[in-house]
Amino acid sequence: MSDPKIELIPSKTALCVDAAITLDVLIRIAPPPPATSVERSPLNLALVLDRSGSMAGRGKMHYAQEAAAFAVWQLHETDRVSVTVFDEHVDTLVRNAPALDKTAITESIQSVLPRGSTALYDGWLEGSRQAASGLIDGGMNRVLLLSDGLANHGVTDSKAIALKARELADQGVSTTTLGVGDDYNEDLMEAMAKTGDGNYYYIQDPVQLTDIFQTELQGLVATFGQKVSIGLDPVADLHTLEMLNKLEGTETGRLKLPNLVFGQPIQLVVRLHVPPRAAGTDLISVRLAWDTLDGNDRRVLHATLRVQESIPKADWDLLPADPAVEQHVALLMLARAQNEATTFYDTGDFVSTRRTLEDAAAVAARYSSSPEVNDELTHLSRMMLDLEEHRGDRMRKQAKYRSYSRFRGSPSAPVTNPDEQVPPSHRDDPDKPHA
């Protein structure tokens, strides 16, 4: 298997010989495409489903069961699986074991009825223990936690739960969180995914659940690198270096990245403030490191950016900017604006919330030839409509989720308009199975 490639693309192709400049650099980490002949690594999947009373609404429990059953049927006999459900009580319906009798496992899932309150921490912790009991060396060990409500029973402190997620990730059990609807705690679910080395999904309508489970499983089976980090080292006289993405730091001073997945690039932007300098100068070196799935090897790649031309400031100002770099800067500025809008919303300043979203839309409109930016424009319009129609919780979740995905360097997972996605028959009858 070949290593990923690191591309370093400056916003302009020259430096400035007589003035300080700001130079944005796109860091594109391009994993190799999947090799169809390579056997995938085994999965150890812990399904943890909220069965609190609110899951009865809008057919959420039905769609959660359908999605969980879908996941079970995708597993091989060499994979392992467990199923844990929770309200204020926690029950493990299927203890961690090879995924042999899929019919019995899915029948257990279909037997769950919504009831009670939400012991989210206890349910997730039990699922994590199940995954840990069958830990697969050289495989992906992942908890999939699905909830539609607030943690209101047992441990509820977000920081304590996120710290436990980090501890379990360090032991090899990662956590993906799936928040359904508009009532769950997105800050907690996002924090658990960040510290738990997994993914976070905002699922606006439960009919999306099977598609999201499919997205998650495809990512798991195509993963070839875990515990990924990036180190950035500017040359000595570049005093300011700003990462426009928001990434967690490591104990060694590097930055955490998502897992390396075949065919899924990671894209970051770093902003350099470059003093006057001659051509042919190294500007920044990048160190990418990751663990192979078998845990026996820590791989490291290096790349260095050197710009071969240096010109006067008047000429530099006339140079066209690289469109790919410009687009990613715009997308990250939009992510920052969405994050800022949620901060205003939390303080009750709805005027500033709307103004921030409107300003972000104005920025996006300047780059509207890009499909990705057009997608952001569509979602910004929906956020403003939600705010206008007093659906602030939905606006906040949408803004937090999209900025979370963008800041990680990966494109947002599908978050679609339910009115466009759900066929009328399913909107009329939420208990009707979704094909």
Structure in a nutshell:
This protein has helices at 60-74, 102-110, 120-133, 158-170, 186-195, 209-221, 313-318, 323-346, 350-365, 371-388, 392-407, 418-421, 424-428, and strands at residues 5-10, 15-16, 21-30, 43-50, 80-86, 90-98, 140-147, 174-180, 200-203, 223-234, 241-243, 255-257, 260-261, 266-274, 281-292, 298-307, 310-311.
Give the strand order of the largest sheet, numbering strands 1, 2, ... along the chain: 6-5-4-7-8-9
Please estimate the helix content.
25-40%
CATH architecture of the largest domain: 3-Layer(aba) Sandwich
Unreliable stretches (pLDDT < 50, length at least 5) are 412-435
Could you say which structural class the secondary elements and strand pairing correspond to?
alpha/beta
- CATH domain class name of the largest domain: Alpha Beta
- The overall pLDDT average reads 88
The number of helices is 13
Structure in words:
The chain has 435 residues and is an alpha/beta fold. The chain folds into three domains: 128 residues, Sandwich (Immunoglobulin-like), CATH 2.60.40.10; 179 residues, 3-Layer(aba) Sandwich (Rossmann fold), CATH 3.40.50; 98 residues, Up-down Bundle (Four Helix Bundle (Hemerythrin (Met), subunit A)), CATH 1.20.120. It contains 13 helices and 17 strands. The strands form four sheets. The protein has a six-stranded mixed β-sheet, sandwiched between helices.
